[in-house]
Design brief:
ATPase_P-typ_cyto_dom_N, HAD_sf, magnesium, nine-stranded mixed sheet, single chain, transmembrane, 18% strand, ATPase-coupled intramembrane lipid transporter activity
Length: 1025
């Protein structure tokens, strides 16, 4: 609807097969309208066509119900929140186990002490979990509310009214605008949040709406004939996109769950860290030990009396073997690690979106990365123009500029080379060929110059006078922008463009006008784009085309240099495009147009028929030139990849680019080192060919593999195990021409075949599936939008930040989590050992050693702060971890938390618990309460000293934690007269007994630690000394 016109025609039958909102046109002033009916034949699912009748501006007349236009990402609502959270907690065995323990205290025969002994720890765990879930739900609700409350302008019978996003219905007429000068009958769309592409896309209104008068009346006339018009993807606007330029009126066709962005969203798998699985395995072992100890105690009583009740009492008595605080400590630790990552000034802008798996970063074995925009900057720079017999590089662009200038300063520039009197034949040929090539590059594209105010010149004036300083190029591909910017630098400038025409400015300032007759946009299937233009000054009709060499080789006239030069330029890391042209007579074009329009109106096999008509033109085209643009590497990509390689991480590059360009980028980025052999996997299509090629590859050792997506598909179909086995032995793998599905498949196969952790890095919407499939997904916020970073577990602004994220934060998170988990287990095993010794000495009685507040305080205020302060510990400084990435290799073997280290801590716990209990029993004099005082005080001091023994680098908060815990215990003794004799603890006898027991329990461990560091020091200690 250009220039204020509004659709008022009779029932309009539109045949479509797409999702979203249909663009009826650009507007500046709008009146009301109603009674306009559109019938859409829609494809729902697998070829299921259903009619949808939409009354424009009258959603209340709809004949069927459609989803509400609301976004709801919440897991719960007000009524289901508490039941839902509790269900999700207690569906896991160990949480249910602790609930049953607490509930058992309501049974008189099983009660071992005060109810709060079991309910308070469980309550604390649940409160922390509920608060965390509530915060996430509130944040989610506020985000949804913000989106659902966005205000839009809607056309109605009362004129333009404001409506919330949640109030939009199918059939509403919505005005979407961007404050900028719009081109007649078109607008630009930004889809970066939908598909990861930041470049603007041209969208066109329904053609019949552009022919309506400026002032429209608000009624329908029964005499108007129906209008039949084919629609394409260019007529649609989608939710989650932004109108970047122009103003449109659109009719709403889909809402809510039927939106493309919602249907494209796959639920990402819930990632559970390998560390969490290992801890779960250890807790299962502890539970087994709990059952065994309980059975042994009852067996030693010879199963006397009601022995089955005794088993349950012992299970309750030794329940501390499985620490209830372990899960809470680890979850809080993960939150601290995530906070540290976000606050690291060396990697600014890093966001942690999955705070449950930071320790996964410390055990990555395979890193799978995208190329464009991740390793490279996605900033295209024009490097090479090749005409077959002559090539122009960056150092000879002044020659091109000179040739273009000569072409337009000759007496008649219509055929500048052939009529130049002073030039030689060769000179004429070169000028003509360069001029034709530059003109073709300046015309065959989808680039639009947009003029913006620069503070001195306003927008309208800038567009009228083609101000160079105000002009910005927008296109669907950064390659195209770089090409048009290059033609501007050599003298032929694109200054204007709309839906039907294009203007070029020559070096002499003359404006050349071209009418756009047809455009055939680039698609991933066709790998080429074309345009038919008419030169207004001569009336000549020319068909220009550019595309990838693999498809253009069969379209252009025979030549002997195309394939060789394309290979040469690709080996230099350049993106190559082949440019060609074909002159058409008026009769040829009219014949083509008639067939093309007929094909576009087809209901069945429309795409195939249209492609067939276009291909009838694509024969014997004149090859003009090759262009080469370079995608520059990101900052510090080479040192980062070297760090990862030295850390024992194998890097695979998965890209959709061509083989030669991908290989060259891999070499340039030092993914493949200079002295490394490369095996380029020959293209295979059959099982036999794949078998022969795999045998050839097997004979090579320590070489990088380069394989295309097609060959990869064949190998995985017939020889999946053999191929993965060979590929995993390679120091580097490059997969080119990879689809998003293949990327995710490779990640999945690596996980299944190796059992190792994978990390996927990408920046575009096509990397989302790979990122979600990997154990750790890292999104780079690049030029392809934020979809990858939003879907990722971690988001970084540059690829180089990955080194510090893994080497420093990943390593620290894993080592700290391992130390924290083992110490919490040690703390629980110590008191359980003491209970076992106590029960054994007193005839296997199921009587608790400590009751009431003592048992709660032990795992909370008395030891919580020092134990949790282990999340601040580090073995080496971050600079040393970056300088010696080999330290990361040790973590890949899982040594910080293994069955060996677990067994060592179990033995330490049994030794210390036995020493403390037997020492207290031997040294107490008369009263039982003295045993409690001596043993409990020794236990607290032992735990504090063991934390000090474990710490490798002291932090001031660790000292505060130790002193605060000790002070809390001393201060609480005044209130614990029910369990501890206050007068006894003030005596010298108490002090020396506690001192002796504590020294005997801790001193041998300190001596062993010293001897080990002296005679068998760990790797990191050699760097810190």
């Amino acid at each position: 609807m250009n220039n204020g016109s509004v659709l008022t025609s009779k029932p309009t039958e539109l045949l479509v097969n797409c999702y979203g909102m249909f663009c009826l046109g650009g507007v500046k002033g709008v009146t009301t309208l109603f009674q306009i009916k559109l019938i859409f034949i829609l494809c729902c699912g697998m070829g299921d066509f259903r009619p949808r009748t939409v009354w424009l501006g009258h959603p209340e007349k709809r004949e069927q119900r459609y989803p509400r236009n609301v976004i709801n990402n919440q897991k719960y609502n007000f009524f289901t929140f508490l039941p839902g959270v509790l269900f999700n907690q207690f569906k896991y065995f160990f949480n249910l186990y602790f609930l049953l323990l607490a509930c058992s205290q309501f049974v008189k025969e099983l009660r071992l002490g005060a109810l709060y002994t079991y309910w308070v720890p469980l309550g604390l765990v649940l409160i922390i979990t509920i608060m965390r879930e509530a915060v996430e739900e509130i944040r989610c609700y506020l985000r949804d509310k913000e989106v659902n409350s966005q205000i839009y302008s809607k056309l109605s019978t009362r004129g333009t009214v404001k409506v919330k996003s949640s109030g939009i219905q199918v059939g509403d007429l919505i005005i979407v605008e961007k404050v900028s000068l719009s081109l007649p009958g078109s607008c630009f769309l930004r889809t970066d949040q939908l598909d990861g592409e930041t470049d603007w896309k041209l969208r066109l209104p329904v053609a019949c709406t552009q022919r309506l008068p400026t002032a429209a009346v608000s009624h329908s006339e029964d005499g108007d004939p129906p209008v039949n018009e084919s629609l394409s993807i260019e007529n649609t606007l989608w939710a989650s996109t932004v109108v970047a330029s122009g103003t449109v009126v659109g009719v709403v066709i889909y809402t809510g769950k039927e939106l493309r962005s919602v249907m494209n969203t796959s639920n990402p798998r819930h990632k559970v860290g390998l560390f969490d699985l290992e801890v779960n395995c250890l807790t299962k072992i502890l539970f087994g030990a709990l059952v065994v100890v309980s059975l042994v105690m009852v067996a030693l009583q010879h199963f006397a009396g009601r022995w089955y009740l005794q088993i349950f009492r012992f299970l309750l008595l030794f329940s501390h073997i499985v620490p209830i605080s372990l899960r809470v400590n680890l979850d809080m630790g993960k939150m601290v690690f995530s906070w540290m990552i976000k606050k690291d000034s060396k990697i600014p802008g890093t966001v942690v979106r999955a705070s449950t798996i930071p320790e996964q970063l410390g055990r990555i074995s395979y890193l799978l990365t995208d190329k464009t925009g991740t390793l490279t900057q996605n900033e295209m720079v024009f490097r090479r123009l090749h005409l077959g017999t002559v090539a122009y590089g960056m150092d000879s662009m002044d020659e091109v500029q000179s040739h273009v200038f000569s072409a337009y300063t000759q007496p008649t520039h219509d055929a500048p080379a052939s009529r130049a009197p002073a030039a030689t034949k060769v000179r004429k040929s070169i000028i003509s060929r360069v001029h034709e090539a530059v003109k073709a590059i300046a015309l065959v594209h989808n680039v639009t110059p947009v003029y913006e105010s620069n503070g001195v010149t306003d927008q309208a004036e800038a567009e009228q006078h083609y101000e160079d300083t105000c002009r910005v190029y927008q296109a669907s591909s950064p390659d195209e922008v770089s090409l048009v910017q290059w033609t501007e630098s050599v003298g032929l400038t694109l200054v204007g463009r709309d839906q039907s025409s294009m203007q070029l400015r020559t070096p002499t300032g003359q404006i050349l006008n071209f009418t756009i007759l047809q455009i055939f946009p680039f698609t991933y299937e066709s790998k080429r784009m074309g345009i038919i233009v008419r030169d207004e000054s001569t009336g000549e009709i020319t068909f220009y085309m550019k595309g990838a060499d693999v498809v253009m080789a069969g379209i252009v006239q025979y030549n002997d240099w195309l394939e060789e030069e394309c290979g040469n330029m690709a080996r230099e890391g350049l993106r190559v495009l082949v440019v060609s042209k074909k002159s058409l007579t008026e009769e040829q074009y009219q014949d083509f147009e008639a067939r093309y329009v007929q094909a576009k109106l087809s209901v069945h096999d429309r795409s195939l028929k249209v492609a067939t008509v276009i291909e009838s033109l694509e024969m014997e085209m004149e090859l003009l030139c090759l262009t080469g643009v370079e995608d520059q590497l990101q900052t510090d990509v080479r040192p980062t990849l070297e760090i990862l390689r030295n850390a024992g991480i194998k890097v695979w590059m998965l890209t959709g680019d061509k083989l030669e360009t991908a290989t060259c980028t891999a070499k340039n980025a030092h993914l493949i080192t200079r002295n490394q052999d490369i095996h380029i996997f020959r293209p295979v299509t059959t099982r036999g060919e794949a078998h022969l090629e795999l045998n050839a590859f097997r004979r090579k050792h320590d070489c990088a593999l380069v394989i295309s997506g097609d060959s990869l598909e064949v190998c995985l179909k017939y020889y999946e195990y053999e191929f993965m086995e060979l590929a995993c032995q390679c120091p580097a793998v490059v997969c080119c021409r990879c689809t998003p599905t293949q990327k995710a498949q490779i990640v999945r196969l690596l996980q299944e075949r190796t059992g190792k952790l994978t990390c996927a890095v990408g920046d575009g919407g096509n990397d989302v599936s790979m990122i979600q499939e990997a154990d750790c997904g890292v999104g780079v916020e690049g030029k392809e939008g934020k979809q990858a970073s939003l879907a990722a577990d971690f988001s970084v602004t540059q690829f180089k930040h990955l080194g510090r994220l893994l080497m420093v934060h990943g390593r620290n998170s894993y080592k700290r989590s391992a130390a924290l988990s083992q110490f919490v287990i040690h703390r629980s095993l110590c008191i359980s050992t003491m209970q076992a010794v106590f029960s054994s000495v007193f005839y296997f009685a199921s009587v608790p050693l400590y009751q009431g507040f003592l048992i709660i305080g032990y795992s909370t205020i008395y030891t919580m702060f020092p134990v949790f302060s282990l999340v601040l510990d580090k073995d080496v400084k971050s600079e040393v971890a970056m300088l010696y990435p080999e330290l990361y290799k040790d973590l890949l073997k899982g040594r910080p938390l293994s069955f060996k280290t677990f067994l060592i801590w179990v033995l330490i716990s049994i030794y210390q618990g036995s020493i403390i209990m037997y020492g207290a029993l031997l040294l107490f004099e008369s009263e039982f309460v003295h045993i409690v005082a001596i043993s409990f005080t020794s236990l607290i001091l032992t735990e504090l000293l063991m934390v000090a023994l474990t710490i490798q680098t002291w932090h001031w908060l660790m000292i505060v934690g130790e002193l605060l815990s000790l002070a809390c215990y001393v201060a609480s003794l005044v209130f614990l007269h029910e369990f501890i004799d206050v007068y006894f603890i003030a005596t010298v006898s108490f002090l020396w007994k506690v001192t002796v027991i504590t020294l005997v329990s801790c001193l041998p461990l300190y001596i062993l630690k010293y001897l080990r560091r002296r005679f068998s020091p760990p790797n990191y200690s050699k760097l810190t000394s």
